[in-house]
Write a structure and sequence with these properties.
This is Lecithin:cholesterol acyltransferase. It comes from Terrabacter aerolatus. GO terms for molecular function: O-acyltransferase activity. Helix content is 22%, strand content 26%. The chain is of the alpha/beta class and 473 residues long. It folds into two domains: 6-361, Alpha/Beta hydrolase fold, catalytic domain (Rossmann fold, 3-Layer(aba) Sandwich), CATH 3.40.50; 373-468, Macroglobulin (MG2) domain (Immunoglobulin-like, Sandwich). A six-stranded parallel sheet has the order 7-1-8-9-12-15, with helices on both faces. A five-stranded mixed sheet has the order 17-23-22-19-20, with no helix packed on it. Strands 3-2-4 form a three-stranded antiparallel sheet, with no helix packed on it. The longest helix has 20 residues, at 125-144.
């Protein structure tokens, strides 16, 4: 069942394909510079048409560089820029689920009730928030023109990761509140993520690990990546915790750090001044996955930790829970739906898709029971071809203080297209298991850790890893 509203899907950082319009006027879709079909990301990083050639000029701020780059569509499959954010599965599952509910992308004879909003994720979220209005508002007017039940249509945003920041800026700072009915965020870093701080400070340089390309200058040119910096105090400082604007942050632009903090504080002030921000918002957050939360600066490098002192709030493996919960709410807020899942897979998780359907239709959807055993999984983002992929996980019971349950668990590695490459059923010791996979082919693969058999009560989690080919010499 559909609502009569316009549903707009926003992907996260790196989640839109990018192209450059041809000199002969041919469309950008024919000259893609960011679209790792089949996970062949290295071809786009090292080939003749490389996204790395499109680093932004210094001082770009909230502007556009006029470099010919245009957003084309949403990523359909696994995508990753190594060391910049985290590998993410594509958005075809989410779009397909919405289409099955009856939402339709526009055609020659019908207005759209579903928009997949692609954007240039290099640019400031302020810029993309303003651009969002130029796409959404005309489409909404066309839908309303159908009359009847559509006359009072509004917009519902379904946003993964950084897409939620773009939508929030449009809603709160660009007049979008007047036309928005609901905001659904999936793993959005409402208050930022410590991973972004580590990535910007340490850089992603050629010769580090398996990389044969240098992504540092490209990553540090992106206002969007700075706007993923944590707003919360997470930097160890003389026995206390400091924000990024309260202590020197090595290796990066002080002005861009300050502007990123202003981005967050401006949004928070606007939301605090508008009570409807609370009533329209649905936060879906990943939980129970080891997540980098705090950082210590040592000799110009960022050393991360999963804890605040003795406290471990976990998160979705990329966004810690402290960063995932917004609107000034406590971590136990009733505005958040909690899902034991990794950031990479939240937009594909069936329980999350059920939640989205329920929020859209205002009808309860009860298709499966919530099982009783959760997983915490650690899967590396990147390994070198020829080296084993090491996966570690822990089982925990939903009953506080209970011993780890004795369950059979299977770890399965699949290609981005779903073909099974390898599977293992590790022996568990005190609820902890490890699996090692050798001789995996180069490419982007999904790793699912879950119970064995259809009647298992272990909640599966899915992550993504990139097997990088050995550089040719």
């Amino acid at each position: 069942m559909t609502s009569n509203d316009l549903v707009v899907v926003l992907p996260g950082i790196t989640g839109s394909t990018l192209g450059v319009r041809g000199d002969d006027g041919s469309p950008a879709s024919e000259h893609l510079i960011w679209a790792p079909s089949g996970g062949a990301v290295w071809k786009l990083l090292t080939g003749g048409q490389s996204i790395l050639d499109k680093a932004l000029p210094e001082g770009i701020g909230d502007g556009h560089p006029d470099d010919g780059v245009e957003p084309v569509g949403l990523m359909p499959d696994v995508h990753v820029l190594p060391g910049i954010w985290t590998p993410v599965r594509g958005y075809d599952v989410l779009i397909g689920a919405l289409e099955q509910q009856g939402y339709q992308q526009g055609g020659a004879d019908r207005p759209a009730s579903l928009i997949a909003f692609a954007y240039d994720w290099r640019l400031s979220n302020r810029y993309n928030g303003e651009r969002l209005g130029t796409v959404v508002e005309p489409a909404l007017e066309q839908l309303r023109a159908r009359g009847g039940a559509y006359a009072d249509a509004k917009v519902v945003f379904v946003c993964h990761s950084m897409g939620g920041l773009v939508a929030r800026w449009y809603i709160e700072k660009c007049g979008g509140a007047e036309v928005t009915r609901k905001l659904i965020t999936l793993g959005t870093p409402w208050r930022g993520a410590t991973d972004a701080l580590e990535q910007l400070v340490n850089g992603v340089k050629k010769g580090i690990g398996p990389l044969s390309v240098d992504l540092t200058d490209f990553s540090r040119s992106m206002p969007s990546l700075f706007q993923l910096l944590p707003e919360f105090a997470c930097i160890s400082n003389a026995g206390d915790w400091a924000k990024t604007t309260e202590v020197p942050v090595p290796n990066v632009s002080t002005a861009m750090v300050a502007d990123a903090m202003a981005f967050h504080t401006d949004l928070q002030a606007a939301e605090a001044a508008r009570p409807e921000s609370h009533t329209m918002t649905h936060m879906v957050v990943g939980i129970r996955q080891p997540s980098q939360t705090t950082v210590t600066f040592q000799d110009g490098r960022a050393i991360t930790s999963t804890t605040f002192g003795s406290d471990d709030d976990y998160g979705d493996g990329t966004v810690p829970l402290t960063g995932a919960v917004g609107l000034g709410e406590a971590l136990d807020t009733n505005l958040a739906v909690r899902v034991p899942e990794q950031h990479t897979n939240l937009q594909c998780n069936q329980f999350v898709l059920d939640q989205v359907q329920e929020i859209l239709s205002a009808q309860p959807v009860r298709r499966r029971e919530i099982t009783d055993t959760s997983l915490r999984a650690t899967v590396p983002d990147l390994v070198t071809d020829g080296r084993p992929l090491e996966v570690a996980f822990d089982l925990e019971s939903d009953v506080p203080g209970a011993d780890p349950p004795h369950k059979a668990v299977t770890v399965t590695v699949r290609t981005a297209r779903g073909k099974v490459l390898a599977a293992a059923e590790p022996t568990l010791r005190a609820g902890h298991g490890r699996a090692s996979f050798a001789d995996l082919p180069a490419g982007t693969h999904t790793v699912t850790i879950g119970g064995s058999g259809p009647d298992s009560t272990v909640r599966p989690v899915t992550s993504t890893t990139l097997v990088w080919p050995e550089p040719t010499r």
